[in-house]
Design goal:
rod-shaped; single chain; alpha+beta; six-stranded antiparallel β-sheet; 47% helix
């Protein structure tokens, strides 16, 4: 069972382990390598490994910069043991979070219990050392040993087992908890997406447009009314071969549209036109009847008749 707080996680004591390596993951083995490179007394490393295998390490508390547990000695004496871990600076965290936010696969791997080598390599490329090295694990034990003793070595071996299951344990030691890291990485990712999203075209608020009417230039003068509707220039020779277009019907519709456009323009220019109600849109049947009365080509009468009958 694991207990979570804002900046602390407490793990229940793990059972004894026999016949297997303490760290299965590559990042867990790197953690133990940093311990072995830091400890000056190889005998203490071996003794601490035996303590850990025997289940002598109690509940482990993980906080930014510190891991803590009570470790039982071979004579059943208990000692509080701490190992201090170098925390990342604010600048280091800013670079790391930018890195994680920029590659969704990094965060997905962490949430899946993996520490991808690419994340560690990318972090090193921007000057951030995620995994500890020589001298990064500083011991403090109630037995008053000045170097790593069997108790702090046992604690580090037990933490390697925790790291195997959850790489966020390492990141908490380095200064940030899982929820804080995930939320901030997601915020940065959303900010990146928003920054690169295409911006909508600039517009004008409706009330600004209406209040600015008095500053707008006057409308141009209306076009003069033609003496007669313009005839369509279409002819059968303008239609490509194989195209099933009724040229006569199309010319009739174009001429009808020109007549109606001229009529509407005359009405718009007449005095008092603004008081005339707008005409209602005719139905298909009404419009077909109007076109039939205008003398369409003989071939179009049958289609107009069918449309008028609806």
């Amino acid at each position: 069972m694991t207990t979570h707080h804002a900046s602390e996680r407490t793990f229940e004591a793990l059972p004894p382990v026999r016949g297997t390596a303490f760290a299965r993951s590559w990042w867990g083995r790197t953690w133990l390598k940093a311990l072995e490179d830091t400890a000056l007394d190889g005998k203490q490393v071996k003794a601490g490994r035996r303590h850990a295998r025997a289940g002598a390490v109690g509940a482990v508390s993980v906080q930014p910069g510190r891991i803590t547990a009570v470790v039982r000695d071979h004579d059943s004496t208990s000692y509080r043991s701490d190992v201090l871990v170098q925390q990342l600076s604010a600048a280091d965290w800013a670079r790391l979070l930018e890195l994680v936010a920029g590659r969704a696969g990094h965060l997905a791997a962490l949430l899946d219990g993996e520490m991808p080598p690419e994340l560690v390599e990318d972090a090193e490329a921007v000057g951030v050392e995620l995994l500890p090295g020589i001298g990064d694990l500083e011991p403090e034990c109630a037995c008053e040993a000045w170097d790593h003793c069997a108790h702090t070595v046992a604690l580090c071996h037990q933490v390697a087992r925790l790291l195997d299951e959850d790489p966020f344990v390492l990141l908490l030691m380095r200064g940030r908890g899982e929820s804080e890291l995930v939320e901030r990485a997601q915020e940065l990712g959303a900010e990146r997406t928003t920054a690169h999203a295409p911006r909508p075209p600039a517009g004008v608020l409706a009330h600004e447009a209406f209040t600015a009417r008095h500053r707008l230039p006057p409308l141009p003068a209306p076009l003069p009314v033609a003496d007669a509707p313009v005839r369509s220039p279409l002819s059968a020779g303008d239609v490509p071969a194989g195209c099933e277009v009724d040229v006569a019907a199309l010319e009739f519709l174009a001429a009808d549209a020109a007549v109606r456009a001229r009529m509407l323009l005359e009405e718009a220019l007449a005095p008092g036109h603004e008081l005339t109600p707008l005409p209602t849109e005719p139905t298909v049947r009404e419009d077909a009847a109007r076109l039939a009365a205008a003398g369409p080509p003989q071939a179009s009468i049958a289609r107009l008749t069918a449309a008028a009958r609806g």
